[in-house]
Amino acid sequence: MSENTGRPVVADLDAAALTTLHATLLDEYAALQARGLRLDITRGKPSPEQLDLAQPLLGLPGEDDFRAADGTDTRNYGGLAGLPELRAIYADLLGIPVEQLLASGTSSLTVMFDVLAYAFLFGRDGSPQPWGREEKVRWICPVPGYDRHFAMLEHLGIEMVTVDQTPDGPDVEAIARLVADDPTIKGLWLVPTYSNPGGETTSAEVAARLAAMPAAAPDFTVLWDNAYAVHHLTDDESKAVDVLGLAAASGHPDRFVVFASTSKVTFAGAGVAFLAGSPSTVAWYLRHLAFGSIGPDKVNHLRHVRFLRDADGVRAHMHRHREILEPKFGAVLDTLDARLGGTGTATWNTPRGGYFVSLDVVDGTARRVVELAREAGIALTPAGASFPYGHDPRDRNIRIAPTFPPVDEIRVAIDGLATCVLLAAVEQRLS
Amino acid sequence: MSENTGRPVVADLDAAALTTLHATLLDEYAALQARGLRLDITRGKPSPEQLDLAQPLLGLPGEDDFRAADGTDTRNYGGLAGLPELRAIYADLLGIPVEQLLASGTSSLTVMFDVLAYAFLFGRDGSPQPWGREEKVRWICPVPGYDRHFAMLEHLGIEMVTVDQTPDGPDVEAIARLVADDPTIKGLWLVPTYSNPGGETTSAEVAARLAAMPAAAPDFTVLWDNAYAVHHLTDDESKAVDVLGLAAASGHPDRFVVFASTSKVTFAGAGVAFLAGSPSTVAWYLRHLAFGSIGPDKVNHLRHVRFLRDADGVRAHMHRHREILEPKFGAVLDTLDARLGGTGTATWNTPRGGYFVSLDVVDGTARRVVELAREAGIALTPAGASFPYGHDPRDRNIRIAPTFPPVDEIRVAIDGLATCVLLAAVEQRLS
């Protein structure tokens, strides 16, 4: 028995107790299946109520409103860097000089793809040659991490090397060793604030080390995907680290390319993405962008300026998101605790922000848990999704995305998931 | 003297008459400079009055309107192919099955860049290897043509080979010879309807030949940039040629990739771009797109559906554009005729649609004309811009973009331009 919960520690059970528990769990699982659930906790999508918070955007800027502060007609071509007054809002939020921050189209994923595409087609400043001409390009991936990052790298033929995420961010000692001597290692991808899926925030110390460490590749690049920069769930809010300042001070001004977006602030599919970097990185990006764009959607930029107003407007808006999301995350954490606490079959994080809870089940059972859940009508992100090539070496990590479904569905889904976690753990001990 | 106009044919003048005319033109040019003009006829931008036609878009879809016809919440992620009801409108206009036509972001230039980037990074279906791995990639460019096409090809390191534009489209005999034996020739870029700058429409016969001709490169690709598909200036409207049908019937289903956009229908900077192709080309595009996008701006798609309604709605809207543009093109043509008709110093086209008038001056004088105009405060597109590498071998072509300025400014600018054309022609004869 666990001292704290009175529930059995599965690893401590003898054969008879295991068999009894197995039978109980099979009954529980059969009952779960009999409910005919159709629940989905797979993707980090905002819920309709969150999208409703930005409902005025649908009527903005309004029929007579199309002039930017400097008189620009936002309806026409031009303005490759994006609307200055919108850039100013995010420059303020992220602590970046406005000249070094651009507003783009609707998706930061697209901007990140473009940055990698430009590096492959043309090279970064300082690249010996375009990356597409290199024999091999390798990349450091902290794990668990964001599946779309890994999928893009794999699609580009980049070989992924993993390091562990720690509570302070990626294992910077391991990174420093990898980049020091190997010029094929061209980069690193990070979600620095409330990471996907583990919720860790990269500390100022780790960021400073990333900025300062020597790298064999002259064009070593950190893609700083600050997707959840303002997406707090508690009063203990992570602050933006000034990585561009750190990098400049360390003599590696072009090392970081910073990304953010309003996808999970306003509309997931119709927001605005941002790119920031050193003055020369911004110039590099614009130089290549100019061949494939005459400018981003400035009307959507203006629409966002009218709605968000300023950095405090964004902060106030994000507080309303928090009010919607806190009960959902609470439902996940409460249910996990009630069902799995003290059983020794799972650990999980308590996120202070972002969009996910990262659940580690008994080693070697994550795939089985996801399979059991699927067969009970509970869709989970595939096991291994948070690892390069979909391969979780310990087969233990499951990403829970609680933002989209209603609270009652989350409770049911996580309760069902807990049954699957326990059942898989017992099955493993019996096998 | 010209029989028709009573104006002198410059080439026929003797030395004394030339000297007299030169003095007269120098006076005229001095008077032009003295006016201190600041006129710009450089870029194919819609005018504010044209943008005003789409003013309701600024308040659409409206605060309570975000559901697509199939119930999709347009505000959220997803829907990589674009909103079906918007795709249906352009499928109707272009005569393409809706399954083969996608709605994308705001810029067809961006979609075209992405298609080339995917070809370079990953190859097209049937490519022996990604284009970026080829020793040499060559491309056929009908001239004069669109400067942004040429600039993008040059930036990608593609070697450009020119063929002439004819009144029926590009010189297809020359193209067929070039592609027959040379596998390094990977493609051809065309503005098939009311081309930039010459206004020619590629005939059904030329299109059929392009579809049917054998090509040494298995992945030979025609980028069919139908930017002005519905941009008529007369009742003699060019019809869309069914190139995808022709290509499929000729056994080269994947040869064409078709592009269009609402940039010059609704808002130049906030419209919607479209891509179409064979089912396998569309699948190829989506397969790569999926790594850098979770879906386009579906709210902007819905906004356009609400405003344009259907294909007839687009046609009616384009008629309102025509009412604005006809007097502007008329001012160009009338002024050119009044000042240069019968002088033997220039020829030009009478466009039935599109955004440009293409002016050919005396061989070897286009750069001088542009220089003279600039020094008189009239900004023209740089001479040579309509040719690869900015090199017009006969130094004679000047692109006139009359859509943006008001009619009275156009008259003044073209009148001044005519003085420069005549002065440059006389200078050349005297030199």
TrEMBL record, chains A, B:
GO terms for molecular function: DNA binding; L-aspartate:2-oxoglutarate aminotransferase activity. Keywords: DNA-binding. The keyword Lyase does not apply. The keyword Transcription regulation does not apply. It comes from the Bacteria. This is DNA-binding transcriptional MocR family regulator. It comes from Luteimicrobium subarcticum.
